[in-house]
Amino acid sequence: MSCPFNDEQLMQLQAFIELCKTQPQILHHPRLSFFKEYLVSLGVTIPTATFGTKHFTPSGDGSQNETGEKAQSSTEEESEQESDVELDMDGVVEGDSIGDDQLMGDSNKEPSDEDRDKSDEKRSEAMRAFSDQQFEEAIKLYTEAIQLNPQSALLFAKRGQVYLKLNKPNACIKDCTRALELNCDSAAAYKFRGRAYRLLGKFEEASHDLCESLKIDYDDQTNEWLNDVKPNAEKLRQHKLSVQRKKEEKEHREKLRRLHKAQEARSQAAKAQAQANAQSTPAGGMPGGMPGGMPGGMPGAGPFPQGFAANDLGSLLMDPEIITAFQDPEVMAAFQDLSTNPANFVKYQSNPKIAAAIQKLQAKLGKGGSMPFGGGAG
């Protein structure tokens, strides 16, 4: 038996097989249902379809705008970080394109009583055509009724129902969205739009709309449709919660990392400043940058005790407590005054800050009761 395909067709078939190997979920595409059924008839087990999360954007035209592209990009990034959600995609259909024949009427028109009467007549005819399953005729009649009375939410919801029968979920969504703009309490609009979302595989949106419909007016069919979408909607909800939780944990870890880095930077800066102060301290003098300089008479002119060497002064001025004390302008001014006239010590005895600084200096000098300004300890 000769092969019924040419080389190009065989190459395309081979490419399709390779695609099925890497992306087996492609077999769940509605347009490949015939091939899926054939594989099942041979006893082949078809892998469960996996799809990423979908963002709730209830629009009626089905077009992808800039916001939709960003949402899709975000969804793709999440799919790379998180495992895909296993969903039951049976019954999902390919979205329809919105045609120019879906007339929405003049939204600014205020219908007269005559317009409303004629519109009601058209609606009655459309309902009879729908009962006779003449769906195209029903669409035509509902459109004429809408042209006469474009302020009727019921007309848009009913035409949306007919589009649902024609397997046009996007057209249904557009009509039901318009109906909800006219009447936010339209149970029928929520019901049919929810069903349309389910056919498109938008389970979260479907669950939302069907729940809203049941809140307004309970209906057995609506409840049945809701139970159909609940499992997938819950899986997607849990997936989003997991993604959000991991995102928050990542942000918290990043915040702690930045805080730790800042603490290390401050610690390193403090060490560097201490080293710079130590290196800038000359032998026998105060550290560089000390306000006011070294008090007059220090060292060697009698203010220090006998036997006090320049090396001792260098070690003394490396002491952090002494450095801190001399950075106080009041202490520095007092020591400058005392270095000029040690007899002025009496007027500083009642100043606890100056007295404490003198005591620190005495303790560091370790020379008994001798004062560094030539006077007694008092």
Structure in words:
This protein has 378 residues and is mostly helical. The chain is built from 14 helices and two strands. Strands 1-2 form a two-stranded antiparallel ribbon. Helix 5 packs antiparallel against helix 6 (153-165) and helix 7 runs antiparallel to helix 8. The radius of gyration is 43 Å and the shape is elongated. The N and C termini lie far apart (126 Å). Residues 49-67, 78-83, 283-310, 367-371 and 374-378 have low confidence and may be disordered.
List the helices and strands and how they pair.
Elements (H helix, E strand, L loop, with lengths): L6 H16 L10 H9 L8 E2 L14 H16 L3 E2 L26 H19 L3 H14 L4 H13 L3 H14 L4 H13 L3 H14 L3 H60 L30 H8 L2 H7 L2 H12 L11 H14 L13
Antiparallel strand pairs: 1-2
Helix pairs in contact: 4-5, 5-6, 6-7, 6-8, 7-8, 8-9, 9-10
Brief digest:
With 378 residues, the chain is mainly alpha-helical. The chain has 14 helices and two strands, in the order ααβαβααααααααααα. The chain has a two-stranded antiparallel sheet with strand order 1-2.
- First-residue to last-residue Cα separation: 126 Å
Please write the string of helix (H) and strand (E) elements: HHEHEHHHHHHHHHHH
Note the total helix count.
14
Average pLDDT value?
Answer: 76
Overall geometry: elongated
Strands side by side in the biggest sheet: 1-2
Poorly predicted ranges (pLDDT <50, ≥5 residues)? 49-67, 78-83, 283-310, 367-371, 374-378
Radius of gyration computed on alpha carbons = 43 Å
How would a textbook summarize the main sheet? 2 strands, antiparallel
Number of strands: 2
Instruction: Give the structural class.
Output: mainly alpha
Helix content: 55-70%
Classify the beta-strand content into a percent band. under 5%
